[in-house]
Predict the structure.
Amino acid sequence: MTSPQTAPAAFQISVQPSGRTFQAQNDEAILAAAIRSGVGLPYGCKDGACGSCKCKKLSGSVVHGEHQHKALSVEEEEAGYVLTCCARPLTDVVLESRQVTDESAYPIKKLPVRVTTLTRASHDVMQLRLQLPANDQFRYHAGQYIEFILRDGSRRAYSMANAPHTQEAVPGLELHIRHMPGGKFTDHVFGAMKEKEILRVEGPFGSFFLREDSAKPMILLASGTGFAPIKALLERMQHQQITRPAALYWGGRRPRDLYMDGWIRERLADLPNLYYVPVVSDALPEDEWTGRTGLVHQAVLDDFADLSGFQVYACGAPIVVDSARVAYGEQRGLPADEFYADSFTSEADKHGG
């Protein structure tokens, strides 16, 4: 029997202005406790690398585990900001976060999946379809991700590229996987992986999904395979007949990196309020590219003088997401709590400085 002296202390975590509360053990990250309690705090990588979970601590004390300076600087920590993914409570804590949702209807679970198809979408992107167990109801928000649990226990995260309702017509999950040469998982996907292979996954994770209670116009910003969760958002918008104005900016190095450009153009008729801007940064002469050039986050700055009344959904390479977050807030007046992001941190990103 555990004595009161040896039982881990539990602290109350309160989130303002929603008033949501949950319990966290003193040896448990605040984010892990929130996920366990069905309280949807904002987050992305869960590894102290992306900064998506950063929020203001109004009162209480925490201790941070290892994290990257770019995710939380010393100055930010001194100003009272915390990374909930690696902050453990030392007392009761009150946080401020306006991106709080009720996630109790979307339980996180581990389950086996079967590879049904492997389709090359481009020279370095694979469309992977996974079959879910027939008797398992896997609920998720369009825009969320799953984690593959590899044999050594390590994990790799990939966003669902299809909205949940699409499974009624074509069951299973669609993922877009970019080949990272030398990467343990992607080398397998592009080399030895076969149809019918069984994999283990856990999910759904992430706070990147459409806030449907808002009427604000939206910027959808994607770089590379960051288009995967954006595709799921577009399918959700079409299914729910969401008519808010939305501008989609998709960036790649060369035109071939915009591997579902045709898919988007086919849907413009069904989404009359969607405006599409493909952006290429390093086109070669043989590409015969006549569209927008440069950095995709900069294209938004070029087109919009004021983002104070917008929501932004940004997904893809950390450099793009981070640059957009800073520039849109500082230069275009975007409220910090209207920037929703899924930063695709690789293993190298997670272990960087």
